Amino acid sequence: MAFVDGRKVLVLVGRWFDCPSCMRLLEVPIGGAKTVSLGGLTGRVKVADPAVASVERFGNDVMVFGRKLGETNLLLSSDQGGESWTIKVHLPVKAIQAEVERAFKNEVVSVRAMGGTIILNGTVSSVPKVQQVEGLVIGYLRSPNLAQMGVVL
User: Fold this and answer.
1) pTM, whole model, 2 decimals?
2) Helix 93-103 to helix 127-141 angle, to the nearest 10 degrees?
3) Is 100:84 a contact under the CB 8 Å cutoff?
4) What are 97-143's pLDDT values in tens digits?
């Protein structure tokens, strides 16, 4: 991936291709995975920053693993053409939301992420419940598995 005159371009086999429409977004939670279908493309699969995400190829699919918070690019190239995906590795909001719902069934709390920050929103029955919800989320984020993958509080 490169920029020429402020436009995104893709380099394939030594040629420049204007590529505004080929950029696709793939959001992967840290520690999670998503599958990308290659649609019959055969050839090279590369991640620009393997510290952020890694890939494994399975036939016509590529499994993308979120390793560290951040963004990188997935480049697919072959004689038939190429594609580029922007990979955003984010905090595991769905998993945290599920934990909050399981632990606090009678409370209404939504969990979302903005960058590397978790935002809690909702209504709870008391101030101690607020502290308990915050404690659960902080505990989840401090787990050794997430710390090894780049989550820092």
Assistant:
1) 0.70
2) 140
3) no
4) 999 999 999 999 999 988 778 999 999 999 999 999 999 999 888 88
